[in-house]
Specification:
Chain B: Its EC number is 7.6.2.9. Chain B: Its main location: membrane. Chain B: One of its GO terms (molecular function) is ATP binding. Chain B: Pfam families: ABC_tran (PF00005), CBS (PF00571). Chain B: Keywords: Amino-acid transport, ATP-binding, CBS domain, Cell inner membrane, Cell membrane, Membrane, Nucleotide-binding, Transport. The complex is a heterodimer of chains A (275) and B (400). Chain A is mainly α and 275 residues long. Chain A is 86% helix and 0% strand. Chain A has one domain: MetI-like (MetI-like fold). In chain A, helix 5 runs parallel beside helix 8. Chain A is globular, with a radius of gyration of 21 Å. The N and C termini of chain A lie far apart (65 Å). Chain B is α/β, with parallel strands linked by helices and 400 residues long. Chain B has a domain of 120 residues: CBS-domain (Roll), CATH 3.10.580.10. Chain B has 16 helices and 16 strands. In chain B, the strands form four sheets. In chain B, strands 6-7-8-3-9-10 form a six-stranded mixed sheet, sandwiched between helices. In chain B, strands 2-1-4-5 form a four-stranded antiparallel sheet, with helices on both faces. In chain B, helix 15 links the parallel strand 14 and strand 15. Chain B is globular and about 75 Å long. The two termini of chain B are 31 Å apart. Classes of the chains: A mainly alpha (275), B alpha/beta (400). At the A-B interface, helix 9 and helix 10 of A face helix 4, strand 6 and helix 5 of B.
């Protein structure tokens, strides 16, 4: 006896086709809006001369992380500039910033809700497992029919891929607040809102920041992969190097990604410490 | 017990079952089963069973029991941090278990301040901000709550620490912040959940003393949870003794010590009740002042005023005890133009020999609690025993 193969792939495809056709107005709207945002951010960053932006970033690093971070930032960014990768670096940065912002805006409320409701927690956690373990490339495929080739699809895929840690850490942070502090807030007659904003959120802030740090790192790695569907930036430099089999170019762009990653990581971590 | 005092909180038939099927447990309880059997049969834990007691206005009521007796559950039922299974908790006419969410918040804000065993201070807030918490929650204006919190910090001796964070303070100081937070809130009832149990013994004694001082000033209705009998005897106006979620005895410290309700209580107080080897002599204090038989009423009154006492023992030339002169009697003597105080003396006081066992003394403190006179065989006055001294002496004996 032969068991018929379950046509899972067919179902998913027809579902996606239906979504694409039914919500094309919505996706097109999102697409246009996001594209405008990316273009604006890009052009304003390009409008600044390289040395000025470098100086500004170094200043920010110095204020938040101290002298060593500032020196590291200057050296790293100067190297990128020297290698002629300034423009793709800015494009990558823009994508990361944008995707992270969108991810945080969605993740914080979802994370808070999952922390406060056990039922929601049980629904959301498996979804997050799914989002995180699904190979990242797979998200790129439906992104194209939704938003077309280019940066918007890249951001869509990146947001989905990088959001889970922000949600998880927010939930964890709020759930970690000691029971006795919740009891104290309750005992003095705090409403849910007062409890959240005066006790739970402030106390979970370090954990939430750790989640955001993770999200930024994941976003950076995904933005590079998203070059496969036409996202600009350092990823496309790497992609081009692969296609032309030029390891030197590939490593140059790769090193630029590493520098950007370390900068973003140290910056967000020092932000966490100053709190 | 004074039945006519105004009742602040009335607890009647309060039960709490932990588990998913509380009614099953209650049914079995009504058939006379106890906690272990109910747990075995239904898997439900009978945390509290049919608890009834009153908290009088202005008193310091201690709820005492060993761990597992349900005392922490009980105090959390009062402000409904834990939902009750059955029974009434009435405060100023409101039945707390049936309040709607909004009314409950309002009730907690108005009636309850709470001090926690492990302080439960907010680590991200300064001492000042911690003390302001209750007022902030109630929406008191910034300048006003700042002032109130500042005053209550001053009251607990933390002036100058306003901008420190809790983790910069010692345990004793942290609990002072906890106390200040509760006092600033100015709710009608103060709930203290093992408030001093996490402190080391010396600081603990100090805090008990300070609480008593504050209490004598403010007369705030206080429910104090402890597992420590010494502490209960030392600070409680009355004690509710819990065992396995049931009330074993309610009474004043003296009543608990002198008339233990059952063997459990008797065993419990054995550790403390070294009074059988202690005598009146050990708790005796020298007299601050006595009057002589030759003194006129004005002199006697003057002495009382000087020492801030409202009665004075009168002795003859050989220090033999003649009687007790009360303030009103002295004033009466002056009004009536008498030169001698002898006709105005009262014999309505207790005198004991030096070797009187201490535990016999409890029963002697009548409502008008004059110090008990201690005399020798020749009726000479040696000293007095005051109520607090007996308990102090017992508590000290319990520690050794």
């Amino acid at each position: 006896m032969e068991i018929p193969r379950i046509p899972l792939g067919d179902w998913i495809e027809s579902g996606l086709t239906w979504l694409t056709s039914e919500f094309s107005m919505v996706t097109r709207g999102i697409s246009r809006f996001t594209q405008t945002g990316i273009d604006t951010l890009n052009s304003s960053l390009f409008w600044l001369p390289e040395w000025a932006l470098l100086g500004l970033i170094a200043l920010l690093c110095w204020r938040l992380g101290g002298t060593r971070l500032a020196i590291g930032a200057i050296a790293g960014l100067a190297l990128i500039w020297n290698l002629g990768l300034w423009e793709p670096m800015i494009e990558t940065l823009t994508l990361v910033v944008f995707a992270t912002l969108v991810a945080i805006v969605i993740a914080l409320p979802v994370g808070i809700a999952a922390a406060l409701s056990n039922r929601l927690y049980r629904v959301i956690m498996p979804i997050l497992d799914f989002m995180q373990t699904m190979p990242a490339f797979v998200y790129l495929i439906p992104a194209i029919p939704f938003f077309g080739i280019g940066s918007v699809s890249a951001i869509f895929a990146t947001v989905i891929f990088s959001m889970p840690p922000a949600i998880r850490f927010t939930t964890l942070g709020i759930r970690q607040v000691p029971v006795e502090l919740i009891e104290a807030a309750d005992a003095y007659g705090a409403t849910r809102g007062q409890k959240l904003f005066k006790v739970q959120l402030p106390l979970s802030l370090p954990t939430v920041m750790a989640g955001i740090n993770q999200t930024i790192m994941l976003a950076l790695s995904m933005v590079v992969i998203a070059a496969m569907i036409g996202a600009d930036g350092l990823g496309s430099e790497v992609w081009r190097a692969i296609q032309r089999l030029r390891p030197g170019d590939g490593f140059e762009a790769g090193i630029a990604v590493v520098i950007l990653a370390m900068l973003l990581d140290r910056l967000t971590q020092s932000l966490r410490k100053t709190r | 017990m004074d039945e006519t005092r105004p009742v602040k909180i009335k607890v009647r038939g309060l039960s709490k079952v932990f588990g998913k099927h509380p009614q099953k447990a209650i049914e079995l309880r009504n058939q006379g089963m106890k906690r272990p059997e109910i747990l075995e049969k239904t898997g439900q834990t009978l945390g509290l069973s049919n608890i009834s007691f009153d908290v009088y206005e202005g008193e310091l009521l201690v709820i005492m029991g060993l761990s597992g007796s349900g005392k922490s559950t009980l105090i959390r039922c009062l402000n409904r941090l834990i939902e009750t299974t059955e029974g009434e908790i009435v405060i100023d006419g409101e039945n707390i278990p049936t309040l709607k969410e909004k009314a409950l918040l309002e009730c907690r804000r108005r009636h309850f301040s709470m001090v926690f065993q492990n302080f439960a201070l907010f680590p991200h807030r300064t001492v000042q901000q911690n003390a302001e918490f209750g007022l902030e929650i109630r929406g008191v204006e910034k300048a006003e709550r700042h002032k109130i919190a500042h005053d209550s910090l001053k009251q607990v001796g933390l002036e100058g620490w306003e901008d420190a964070y809790p983790n910069q303070l010692s345990g004793g100081m942290q609990q002072r912040v906890g106390l200040a937070r509760a006092l600033a809130n100015d709710a009608t009832v103060l709930l203290m959940d093992e408030a001093f149990s996490a402190l080391d013994p010396l600081i603990r004694k100090d805090m008990q003393q300070e609480l008593l001082q504050l209490q004598s000033k403010m007369q705030k209705t206080t429910v104090f949870i402890t597992h420590d009998l010494d502490e209960a005897l030392n600070i409680g106006d009355r004690i509710v003794l819990l065992k396995d979620g049931e009330v074993v005895q309610i009474g004043t410290p003296e009543e608990i010590l002198t008339k233990p309700a059952d063997d459990y209580v008797r065993r419990f107080i054995e550790g403390v009740d070294r009074s059988r080897i202690l005598t009146a002599e050990s708790a005796m204090r020298p007299l601050r002042s006595t009057a002589r038989e030759s003194d006129g009423p004005r002199t006697a009154l003057h002495r009382m005023r000087d020492h801030a006492i409202d009665s004075i023992y009168v002795v003859d030339r050989d220090r033999r005890l003649l009687g007790l002169l009360e303030v009103d009697a002295a004033s009466r003597a002056i009004e009536e133009g008498s030169d001698s105080i002898i006709p105005y003396l009262t014999q309505d006081f207790r005198k004991v020999p030096m070797d009187e066992p201490l535990h016999n003394l409890f029963a002697m403190f009548s409502e008008k609690s004059f110090p008990i006179a201690v005399i020798d065989q020749q009726e000479q006055l040696l000293g007095v025993v005051v109520k607090g001294a007996v308990l102090d002496e017992l508590a000290r004996a319990g520690e050794q």
